[in-house]
Amino acid sequence: MTGPVIQVSDLVKRYGEIEAVRGINFDVTAGETFGFLGPNGAGKSTTIKILCTLANPTSGSARVAGYDVVKNRDTVRRNIGLVFQETTLDSYLSGEQNLRFHADLYGVPRQQLAPRLKQVLEMVNLWDRRESVVSTYSGGMKRRLEIARGLLHAPRVLFLDEPTVGLDPQTRSSIWTYINDLKQREDITIFLTTHYMDEAENCDRIAIIDNGKIVAIDTPAALKASVGKDRVQISTTDDQATIAELKDRLDLEAGVHDGLVTFNVASGEQFVPRLFATLTHSIRSVSVHRPTLDDVFMSYTGRTIRDSEATASDKNRSTIIAMGRGR
Amino acid sequence: MTVELTTPDVDPVTAAIRVSVPERGFRQDLRAVRIVWHRELIRFRSDRLRLVTSLVQPVLFLFVLGTGLGALAGHGLPVGISFKTYVYPGVLAMSVLFTAIFSAGSIVWDREFGFLREMLVAPVSRSAIVIGKCLGGATVATFQGIVILALAGAAHVPYDPILFLTVIGELLLLSFTLTAFGVMMAGRIKQMQAFMALTQMLVMPLFFLSGALYPLNGLPTWLAVLTRFDPLTYIVSPMRNAVFSHLSVSPAAMSFLAPNVTWDGWQVPIGLSLGIVAIMGAALLGVAIAEFQKTE
């Protein structure tokens, strides 16, 4: 099947008075890694729940792998793999027993099971630990086992809801190595939610969601380009003269920040050669800073993702933030 | 090395193994029932402490209460019949009572630790999961009953294969009904502490009202009525009947020791008595399934 593997149109979810998702539209192409970026409480989890058939939309529709999430619930479920924020493993069973349980529930044909089991366990480097009881696993190992389990029945789409929340920095980056690896090995679309800017960089495309609405949707590079300017910082033999020169010859407003001459230009890297050709005072060092997704979020919502999380009043949410900040 | 020969060794990097998951159907649901059942057994096997602790109470009732009260209660019993023999069917019922309900309670744990979600999002019918759970709890509880059954000699009950098969069948029926009851409760109660408190509150009355320790005839009306609402009553009576019919007791003693349950003087046949337990089990199972259909 060609065309989008996830299609969402005018999706609305209301919980009583609260409108968690306020009419969103987007498509995800097969093979993409698509990220939902936004602060806690923005509507990410609600959207992923609807796509995973765990919640029904108030209005609008969503199709996953070509099937309607409400009308063809079971078909959708067979075609998706899920890794939730909280662990959903049986810690009294071994890693392998957890996967076998899953295989039986999802009806993985028995003759395909042994090789597939080995394949997914090797993919996440847990083959040697398959007989250990899950309660002896570290947080990162558990998450890896859940990823392996999510892949076991060869789903078309793998949903990862905040896949690295509560993990330490090394483990987080290793989880990402596995996720990126998996793209090489499996013919799969990945849909993930995150409130970590640096993680969103791993996605092919990102939707920035705020207050239940998608405010921007594009590749990380394009989103950053849309913010516009790169920040260039130079150190020279005569800063004041350089600032004057930048103003006169290049029409740039520069200032001194952190002891460096600082100014903003579009596509800073292309600008650097011109800088050398123009300035008379010799340049000791140059650095160009691309806008980050933080800048992107800021420019679309008028505040940083951390600001928005600080205002989330929900007790649960603040716990999650506290956990997320412990990185 | 031999493993390599039996399972095709596939290079995980280059070859994706084609896994094709079939449409959901009856066979898939059956496979789900089987694995949910199997998980109960695996967990029970790995939890030896539970095996031992859940034996403590029945053994206490049989040997300590049975012996201690025996001196007093023995005067009311026909000559040669021990009070331990009299309470033995009740103790069997008690041994499955605890295990069955706590087995069902593991659903509450599963919910707290997230594993319930893994089951509920699977493309299988919810009834398959609930039935698997009830069968698992019933199997584990019956096994617990069989351990107590091994102590038959200590209660002067003969090791008779027919008797054992009858009692095991009755225990299985009771276990299933009790697990279904527990699962139904677990469908509503979200916290383990609340579940424990509620079951503690219910388990002892269920046991005391079942006629496990005393005859049901000649009770004050209020108590007689209450005992007739207890599902355990309808299992303890047939079990006691099975036990005493394998001992040489006179018909008169038999009708005193192991009478059928009566409704306002009418004797409920053993078949109907067991049927009532089965119907209760089916009804509770139905309610439990309906509850789990609703969630998520």
User: How would you describe the oligomerization state of the chains in this entry?
Assistant: heterodimer
N to C succession of SSEs of chain B: HHHHHHHHHHHEEH
The level of helicity of chain B is over 70%
Helices and strands of chain B: which structural class?
A: mainly alpha
- Strand element count of chain A: 14
Mean pLDDT of chain B: 87
Largest sheet of chain A: 6 strands, mixed
Biggest chain contact: A-B, 43 and 36 residues
Structural class of chain A: alpha/beta
Cross-sheet strand order for the largest sheet of chain A: 6-7-8-3-9-10
Task: Pick out the low-confidence regions of chain B.
Answer: 1-15
Beta-strand level of the residues of chain B, as a percent range? under 5%
Mean pLDDT across every amino acid position of chain A: 84
**CA-atom Rg of chain A in angstroms:** 23 Å
Radius of gyration of chain B: 22 Å
Order of helices and strands of chain A: EEEHEEHEHHHEHEHEEHEHEEHEHHH
Task: Supply the key terms.
heterodimer; A: 327 residues; alpha/beta; 6-stranded mixed sheet; 4-stranded antiparallel sheet; B: 296 residues; mainly alpha; two-stranded antiparallel ribbon; 2 strands
Fold and architecture overview:
The complex is a heterodimer of chains A (327) and B (296). By secondary structure, chain A is an alpha/beta fold. Chain A is built from 13 helices and 14 strands. In chain A, the strands form three sheets. In chain A, strands 6-7-8-3-9-10 form a six-stranded mixed β-sheet, with helices on both faces. In chain A, helix 6 links the parallel strand 7 (157-161) and strand 8. The radius of gyration of chain A is 23 Å and the shape is elongated. Chain B has 296 residues and is an all-alpha fold. Helices cover 71% and strands 1% of the residues of chain B. Chain B is built from twelve helices and two strands. Chain B has helices spanning 2-6, 26-46, 48-73, 83-112, 115-120, 126-149, 161-188, 192-208, 221-228, 233-245, 251-257, 270-294, and strands at 262-263, 266-267. A two-stranded antiparallel ribbon of chain B has the order 1-2. In chain B, strand 1 and strand 2 form a beta hairpin. In chain B, helix 2 packs parallel to helix 6, helix 4 (83-112) runs antiparallel to helix 8 (192-208) and helix 6 (126-149) crosses helix 7 (161-188). The model of chain B is unreliable at 1-15 (pLDDT under 50). At the A-B interface, helix 2, helix 3 and helix 4 of A face helix 2 and helix 5 of B.
